[in-house]
From TrEMBL:
UniProt cross-references to PANTHER family, sorted A to Z: PECTIN LYASE-RELATED, PLASMIN AND FIBRONECTIN-BINDING PROTEIN A
Signal peptide: 1-23
Entry keywords, A to Z: Glycosidase, Hydrolase, Signal
A GO molecular-function annotation: polygalacturonase activity
Source organism of this protein record: Sipyloidea sipylus (Madagascan stick insect)
InterPro entries cross-referenced by the UniProt entry: GH28_Enzymes (IPR051801), Glyco_hydro_28 (IPR000743), PbH1 (IPR006626), Pectin_lyas_fold (IPR012334), Pectin_lyase_fold/virulence (IPR011050)
PROSITE patterns in alphabetical order: POLYGALACTURONASE (PS00502)
Active site (catalytic residues): H269
Keyword NADP tagged: no
Organism domain of life: Eukaryota
GO biological process: carbohydrate metabolic process
Membrane spanning residue stretches: none
Name under which the protein is recorded: Glycoside hydrolase family 28
């Protein structure tokens, strides 16, 4: 019925399809190559912080410090511009679980308070160009180990007696700020005390063939969080963790031109955009994703406190099984969190999405004048699923006719 079609809406939905070249990382990304080593280190049983840091500082441009074999114990490390760290297949780099080593000055690292900014990361890359982390070895954040001088782990930290709150002061595993052309390749990350990988204002970021393997019970252990970053590719990864597998955010700058291609997510809170999206998230492609056993599947969350424009998002060739909430688009995330910003979700397309087990699908817009605008092509969901839609304009076709019992695997095999 032609009269029901809202023309400006149709035009906006077509944008990402017609200009699909823009809804992705604008770089032509190819498989990374591990840089040549400037030095090869073998583990001792000592504190290795100074040895590794010294090697990184004197390594030289386009070369890598290679951890050859054994278990290396270290406190926080900084990777300089142009330099990489390579953890070989026989090596594990373990973060000392000592809050004093990561404390940013207020002696709050290792406690919960109102701010959650009391610890620096285990590995920091700041103002760098062309740095990276490579190798088939393991970086272990030891989030489940007992903290030095305490009787609990990072994951179970106590509330600060003076400055109470529920923000956890625990080190992120890898923090990348104000950088360009950063690569993570093949590495396995596990047991981060907090987020595994977070970027801020970083343009040109490739995450290729990595594994994240952390228990589903570990709090705030997001997998990969590109924040205020552009030209990002996350490809051939296998991510199981305790919070968002991937979360795209925009707290201090826009996040755009992001490709999430051929990945597998095990446990976790799913493929997320938001909730902090003040500066906008756009031109995002998620393609070739299998999710098995996450709590959410494809999720965009925001509210009037953290809102902004999310547009030009395309999900294609997605298979979901054993997921409670396979698709959640929520403009009123955390019902009591309100402010005066305006979340907008427009030009969101779902193409060839198969959901093999029943679940709850939620499309919750802000109001009649700020509805969710999404389009579906070839979307198949399981009979018996629940479909909740308020203030949402969903066009296209979908049906509860999904068949098949297993999704296969789209990760780093
Ligand atoms: C990427 O490759 C295409 C096709 O070869 C080319 O047209 C385009 O200019 C390349 N883009 C960049 C940024 O190198
Ligand atoms: C993204 O990549 C394209 C192609 O290489 C480049 O022209 C553009 O400047 C990059 N954007 C940013 C913000 O670095
Ligand atoms: C840790 O120690 C404190 C006091 O030193 C005690 O109150 C608390 O019960 C202990 N917690 C655990 C998990 O043993
Ligand atoms: C990195 O950026 C985040 C977000 O802007 C900020 O909170 C953090 O302090 C920065 N870290 C470093 C080491 O600059
Ligand atoms: C993906 O990673 C998990 C551990 O996180 C592992 O058990 C599983 O075998 C991996 N899948 C493949 C196909 O490598």
């Amino acid at each position: 019925m032609q009269s029901q079609i809202h023309l400006p809406y149709v035009a906006s939905v077509l944008l990402c399809i017609l200009h699909v070249g823009h809804c992705r990382d604008l770089r032509n990304v190819t498989e990374p190559k591990t840089p040549e080593s400037c030095i090869r280190l073998t583990a001792t049983t000592e504190d290795e912080t100074k040895t590794i840091q010294k090697a990184l500082d004197s390594c030289g441009n386009s070369k890598a410090v290679e951890l050859l074999s054994g278990t290396f114990y270290s406190g926080p490390l900084t990777i300089p511009s142009g330099v990489s760290l390579s953890v070989g297949s026989g090596a594990t780099l373990k973060a000392f679980p000592d809050p004093a080593l990561y404390d940013t000055g207020a002696h709050t690292c290792g406690t919960q308070d109102t701010y959650g900014v009391g610890c620096k990361a285990f590995i920091t890359i700041h103002g760098a160009s062309g740095s990276g982390i490579y190798g088939k070895g393991i970086i272990d954040g030891q989030g489940g180990e007992t903290m030095t001088g305490r009787n609990v782990s990072w994951w179970k930290m106590p509330v600060n007696s003076i400055n109470k709150g529920n923000a956890r002061n625990a080190p992120r595993l890898i923090q990348i700020n104000d950088s360009v052309d950063i690569t993570l390749y093949q590495i396995t990350l596990k047991n981060s005390p907090m987020y595994h990988i977070a970027t801020s204002k970083t343009n040109g970021f490739t995450v290729w063939g990595i594994t994240i393997n952390t228990p589903s019970s570990a709090p705030n252990t997001d997998g990969v969080d590109p924040m205020g970053s552009q030209n990002v590719t996350i490809i051939h990864c296998n991510i199981s963790t305790g919070d968002d597998n991937v979360a795209i955010k925009a707290i201090t700058a826009p996040s755009r031109h992001i490709s999430v291609l051929n990945n597998h997510f095990g446990s976790g809170h799913g493929m997320s955009i938001g909730s902090e999206i003040t500066y906008g998230g756009s031109d995002i492609t998620v393609s070739g994703l299998t999710l098995h056993g996450t709590t959410n599947g494809l999720r965009i969350k925001s509210n009037t406190f953290r809102g902004g424009l999310v547009t030009g998002v395309s999900y294609t060739n997605i298979c979901i099984s054993n997921v409670v909430n396979p698709i959640v688009l929520d403009m009123r995330y955390g019902r009591n969190v309100v402010g005066n910003l305006t979340p907008e979700f427009r030009d969101i397309t779902f193409t060839n999405v198969n959901v093999l087990t029943d679940g709850t699908f939620t499309f919750d817009g802000l109001s009649d004048s700020k509805p969710i605008e999404a389009k579906m092509n070839d979307v198949h969901i399981k009979k018996g699923s629940k479909w909740i839609s308020e203030y949402a304009k969903i066009s296209g076709t979908w049906a509860d006719d999904a068949t098949g019992t297993a999704c296969g695997y789209a990760g780093n095999e």
